[in-house]
């Protein structure tokens, strides 16, 4: 590689040389070269705003005529509708005349057609139209992608202009309904930068105080320090009116002032008036006009060209130090990034070694992140193996604990299952089949939390593979995408077998119910728990009976056999003249039938109201329960036990 030269060093030396007549001949072409370099990069490089002149105005305000007059040739599309539908970056390059040579010809060159020079300016117009239609269509569409055109001529000054689409109000053709807002946004994206000089074009035959171009220029440049006003069509103003006050800056003041010009009309263009003839007509108009005769330094295309050249030179001189510092900063960052990519790789052996090294580092980084040995360990969130451990120990366990083993069926379902398992006859013992049917249905509910845990682990592994990006891999984006695809496919291929394995484990648990497990509640354990529950219930009954404050003390215990506890036995107790009567299935007391009324119960016990009666298993349709309502005075409810105060009713 040859020695690299910083163009700003050259520009600075020229600007500091007092013998140089103008820095425009050197600095403006350098800025044009930088624009050509940055244009193909697009959004892949940090944007640097280079000095330029943006031409704005409403549709049919005369922008195209001004640009053609500055160039001295007809080369822009013409028409009554919108003509400029893409931003046209026009670089005017002054080429000194060389006597005794044929190098004085003017030519144009497009950035998208390098090394192809157009000496026929009508061909330049056709290429602009074709390139516009390729991007924006053929039916008045608008695009924000630039067309870059360089025109080299000994008859122009060094200027860089950006011809932007004219502002319009009503959409036509394929234009969207918000075409006005889109064009204004496009224009503002250029003129909002401090490095941009605004050339605001306004026609003199309309109200200049409400000019769209001046309004947008004021929004982007409130101080008016980088806005030049151009007033076109001065020759077709209403009789008795003139633009003198505007040219002098008395209506809308601009620090850079105004320039008045005369455009060719459409009739002049149809009659093939040349630019030279139009400039002669413009000169005679201003020279002979009684108002504009004394404003010769503010009227005419030549004055506009000289003013633009000087202002652009001065503007570049102002922003040059900051632009140089910004470019150097970007250059340092790019050089630093290039160094991280390593040296050039030419031979196949070197390429294979580098590839193997990159893949080895990737595998080690993935393994270290899984084992918790990563050098770039996060301190803000769990990642890698720690995250997977959290998924198993916290999220998965919590989801299993949220599964209620008794959810989904009631006591009625259990009773129905037992009855269905006994068939046409009564069973002496509870069969195993209903238990297994119900428990299998509950075990199957463990499948969804397990599959959810699998999905969480899969997502974390994908995240880990994307985080394990070696520095060298940034050099090869295609390799990066290929590694992502391979890792994603590898992990995705393991999801289906894992799902089948989880489903098989759940099915295995459903097929064999392990009743030998230490935590399994067997029949003897259930009887033991029932007896403990009965003892605790008796204790509560004694305490509640004492609280009623009766004087007598009598307890009748229910009988229990050695083989087990009688289900729903009658408990008739008197605690301080208090009694408990079980309202469930009532076995015989002393070989007698159960009492059918409270009177019969009182007669058997030789009780005289008032006394306290405890009803166990209260049922509204029970005979005794219905009869108790005649004596009910007050009561307390404790679980299935209802304590009532029995007193004789008044006759």
From TrEMBL:
<dbReference type="InterPro" id="IPR000375">
    <property type="entry name" value="Dynamin_stalk"/>
</dbReference>
<comment type="similarity">
    <text>Belongs to the TRAFAC class dynamin-like GTPase superfamily. Dynamin/Fzo/YdjA family.</text>
</comment>
<dbReference type="GO" id="GO:0005525">
    <property type="term" value="F:GTP binding"/>
</dbReference>
<dbReference type="InterPro" id="IPR045063">
    <property type="entry name" value="Dynamin_N"/>
</dbReference>
<keyword id="KW-0342">GTP-binding</keyword>
<keyword id="KW-0547">Nucleotide-binding</keyword>
<dbReference type="InterPro" id="IPR019762">
    <property type="entry name" value="Dynamin_GTPase_CS"/>
</dbReference>
<dbReference type="GO" id="GO:0005737">
    <property type="term" value="C:cytoplasm"/>
</dbReference>
<dbReference type="InterPro" id="IPR030381">
    <property type="entry name" value="G_DYNAMIN_dom"/>
</dbReference>
<dbReference type="InterPro" id="IPR027417">
    <property type="entry name" value="P-loop_NTPase"/>
</dbReference>
<dbReference type="Pfam" id="PF01031">
    <property type="entry name" value="Dynamin_M"/>
</dbReference>
<protein>
    <submittedName>
        <fullName>Dynamin-related protein 3A-like isoform X4</fullName>
    </submittedName>
</protein>
<dbReference type="InterPro" id="IPR022812">
    <property type="entry name" value="Dynamin"/>
</dbReference>
<dbReference type="InterPro" id="IPR001401">
    <property type="entry name" value="Dynamin_GTPase"/>
</dbReference>
<feature type="domain" description="Dynamin-type G">
    <location>
        <begin position="47"/>
        <end position="321"/>
    </location>
</feature>
<dbReference type="Pfam" id="PF00350">
    <property type="entry name" value="Dynamin_N"/>
</dbReference>
<dbReference type="GO" id="GO:0003924">
    <property type="term" value="F:GTPase activity"/>
</dbReference>
């Amino acid at each position: 590689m040859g020695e690299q030269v910083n163009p700003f060093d050259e520009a600075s030396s020229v600007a500091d040389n007092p013998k140089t007549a103008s820095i425009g001949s050197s600095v403006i072409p350098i800025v044009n070269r930088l624009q050509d370099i940055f244009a193909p990069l697009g959004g892949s490089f940090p944007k640097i705003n280079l000095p330029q002149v943006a031409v704005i105005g409403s549709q049919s305000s005369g922008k195209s005529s001004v640009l053609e007059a500055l160039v001295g040739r007809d080369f822009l599309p013409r028409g009554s509708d919108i003509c400029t539908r893409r931003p046209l970056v026009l670089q005017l390059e002054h080429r000194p005349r060389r006597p005794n040579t044929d190098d004085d010809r003017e030519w144009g060159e497009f950035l998208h057609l390098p090394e192809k020079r157009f000496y026929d300016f009508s061909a330049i117009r056709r290429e602009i139209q074709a390139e516009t239609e390729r991007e924006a269509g053929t039916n008045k569409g608008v695009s924000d992608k630039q067309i870059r055109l360089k025109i080299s001529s000994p008859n122009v000054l060094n200027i860089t202009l950006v011809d932007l689409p004219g502002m319009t109000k009503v959409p036509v053709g394929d234009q969207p309904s918000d075409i006005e807002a889109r064009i204004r946004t496009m224009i503002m994206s250029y003129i909002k930068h401090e490095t941009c000089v605004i050339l605001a074009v306004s026609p003199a035959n309309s109200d200049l105080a409400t000019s769209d171009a001046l309004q947008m220029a004021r929004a982007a440049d409130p101080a008016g320090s980088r806005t030049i006003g151009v007033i076109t069509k001065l020759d077709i103003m209403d009789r008795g009116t003139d633009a003198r006050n505007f040219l002098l800056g008395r209506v809308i003041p601009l620090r850079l002032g105004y320039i008045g010009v005369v455009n060719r009309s459409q009739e002049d263009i149809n009659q093939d008036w040349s630019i030279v003839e139009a400039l002669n007509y413009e000169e005679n108009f201003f020279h002979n006009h009684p108002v504009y005769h004394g404003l010769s330094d503010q009227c005419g295309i030549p004055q506009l060209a000289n003013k633009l050249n000087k202002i652009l030179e001065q503007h570049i001189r102002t922003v040059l130090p900051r632009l140089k510092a910004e470019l150097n900063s970007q250059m340092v960052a790019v050089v630093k990034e290039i160094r991280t990519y390593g040296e050039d790789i030419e031979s196949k052996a070197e390429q294979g070694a580098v590839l193997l090294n990159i893949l080895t580092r990737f595998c080690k980084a993935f393994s270290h992140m899984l084992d918790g040995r990563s050098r770039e360990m996060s301190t803000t969130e769990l990642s890698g193996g720690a995250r997977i451990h959290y998924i198993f120990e916290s999220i998965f366990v919590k989801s299993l604990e949220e599964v209620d083993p008794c959810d989904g069926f009631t006591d009625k379902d259990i009773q129905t299952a037992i009855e269905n398992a006994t068939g046409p006859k009564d069973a002496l013992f509870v069969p195993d089949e209903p238990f297994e049917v119900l428990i299998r249905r509950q075990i199957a509910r463990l499948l969804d939390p397990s599959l959810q845990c699998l999905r969480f682990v899969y997502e974390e592994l994908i995240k880990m593979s994307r985080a394990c990006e070696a520095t060298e891999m940034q050099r090869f984006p295609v390799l990066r995408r290929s590694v992502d695809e391979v890792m994603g496919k590898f992990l995705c291929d393991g999801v289906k077998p894992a799902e089948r394995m989880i489903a098989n484990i759940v099915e295995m648990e459903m097929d064999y119910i392990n009743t030998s497990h230490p935590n399994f509640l067997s029949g003897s354990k259930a009887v033991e728990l029932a007896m403990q529950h009965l003892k605790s219930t008796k204790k509560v009954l004694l305490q509640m009976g004492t609280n009623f404050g009766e004087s007598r003390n009598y307890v009748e215990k229910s009988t229990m056999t050695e083989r087990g506890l009688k289900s729903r036995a009658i408990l008739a107790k008197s605690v301080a003249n208090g009694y408990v009567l079980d309202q469930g299935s009532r076995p015989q007391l002393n070989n007698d039938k159960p009492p059918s009324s409270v009177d019969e119960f009182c007669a058997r016990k030789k009780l005289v109201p008032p006394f306290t009666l405890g009803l166990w298993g209260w049922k509204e349709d029970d005979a005794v329960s219905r009869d108790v309502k005649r004596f009910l005075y007050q009561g307390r409810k404790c679980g299935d036990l209802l304590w009532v105060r029995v007193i004789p009713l008044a006759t």
